[in-house]
Specification:
Layout: E1 13-18, E2 22-27, E3 30-35, H1 47-51, E4 54-57, E5 60-63, E6 68-71, H2 72-76, H3 82-86
Antiparallel strand pairs: 1-2, 2-3, 4-5, 5-6
């Protein structure tokens, strides 16, 4: 007798927390913080738009409702990508 193999995870990425300071993203056993200072696109969005995130390929995340694409590298080191991470800062 053999067991069927388990399927792929249907939720490899999810937003676990939204606060007045930023957004926490859980991906493959790693939780990452995205501050609104570095990722201002999320600050004024509806919760459902922030929660709607897809991992399009390993380490590449897309929020279709707000048309934001981010990689693990950008999330981990926003200081290395100042034009991408700070371009849309509200004034």
């Amino acid at each position: 007798m053999s067991s069927l193999a388990h399927g792929n995870s249907t939720s490899p990425v999810e937003v676990t927390h939204i606060s007045t300071h930023g957004v926490w993203l859980l991906t493959h056993d790693e939780e990452l913080f995205m501050s609104y200072d570095d990722f201002p696109w999320f600050k004024s969005q509806q919760i459902k738009s922030i929660l709607n995130v897809e991992e399009q390929s390993p380490g590449h995340f897309y929020w279709p409702d707000i048309d934001v694409d981010l990689t693990l590298e950008i999330i981990r080191h926003p200081e290395r990508f100042p034009l991408q991470a700070k371009n849309c800062r509200p004034e």
